[in-house]
Amino acid sequence: MRGTSVAVVASLLAAACASSGVVTAPGSPSPTPTPSITPSGPAAVTRIGSVQVGPGPIGITEAFGSIWVVGSGIGTDATPTVSRIDPASLAVTATIPAGTEPRQAAAGFGSLWVSDTGANKVLRIDPGTDAVAATIDVCANPDGMVAGARSMWIVCGGANTVQRVDPGTNSVANAVGVGGTPRSAVFVDGEVWVSNHADANLSRIDPTPNAVTMIVPTQFGPEGLASFAGSIWVTDTDAGTVQQVDPATGIVGASIHVGGTPDGIIAVAGSLWVVSDTGPSITRIDPASQTVTGLFRVADEGGSAVPRLIAGGDGALWLPIFERNEVVKVGIPV
Q1: Each residue of 154-211: pLDDT tens digit?
Q2: pTM of the model
Q3: Which residues does 253 contact at the CB level (< 8 Å), separation at least 6?
Q4: Cα–Cα distances in angstroms (integers) from residue 293 to residues 129, 140, 200, 219, in the given order
């Protein structure tokens, strides 16, 4: 579709969605990035400590008073694992075998859920026993997950679908078709939002009819999602931007240039924190002024094609360093 204008693309999307009841949100898929306070260079962060974890750490989340790190095992012969870390002592309190090629972790319904993209399964881990309580077959290449509407929603990048899992029975209830190569999900105001990396848009799913009700064009390569201050925030990995979306209307309100290849995004201490593949480095965004207010280098590993995620916990930021089989805990910059 090279050479096709933005207006034509929008009209084609609207026509394609009209018969299905799906609304294509107004606005341009490539709004002009808003001005930012551009730091002169990356500043140092206070490194509180580090922890050795399983091979190829990618996924990370804070839940049940612990930091959980998914060791994907990518590029090694080692057994993939999930490491449970005590955030105060920086001690690994449990190491749990985690399938073939685990990717992300999410909490919900008293459990930790881990997507195993290599085996097309989701693992349900009991934090009381640190053991896998259930293994659920899902669609191809499960990635991001989110809890909401009495269900776990599993984003399957290889099937272009989101599967709904009933936590009461550990079984798949149904699947909803979304855009190309979906990556992440967030639950906002009773609805599921999914980033579609290949199609450069977001899908909004209404759990009642189990259907997509809105498509929101974004810039290129939407990846991470966060809900904060009444908005949805999405990292556009291939465009080097973070965009703000109104969950009620789907209107893109701001497009903030952060540079690099932004992936994971979280809201901590009144700011948005975005981690880039390069370095990795962290960018701080003030959601009120919609500007970049800081750039901080965490490590010096150059560029990487491996997704970088970020977590908060114990008054700090946590980042897996894939190349070192390590997780670092850094102080929140002021």
Answers
A1: 999 999 999 999 999 999 989 999 999 999 999 999 999 999 999 999 999 999 999 9
A2: 0.90
A3: 231, 244, 245, 246, 290
A4: 42, 39, 26, 22
Stretch 125-138: mean pLDDT, rounded? 98
**Token pair of 89, please?**
């002592």
283-329 confidence digits (pLDDT tens): 999 999 999 999 999 988 877 778 899 999 999 999 999 999 999 99
Sequence-distant (6+) residues with CB within 8 A of 34 are: 254, 255, 256, 257, 290, 291
**296 beta partners:** 43, 282
Give the fold, CATH level 3, of 36-331.
Methylamine Dehydrogenase; Chain H (2.130.10)
Q: Taking 50 as the threshold, does the pLDDT of residue 9 lie above it?
A: no
Q: Report whether the peptide linkage leading into residue 280 is cis, meaning its omega lies within 30 degrees of zero.
A: yes
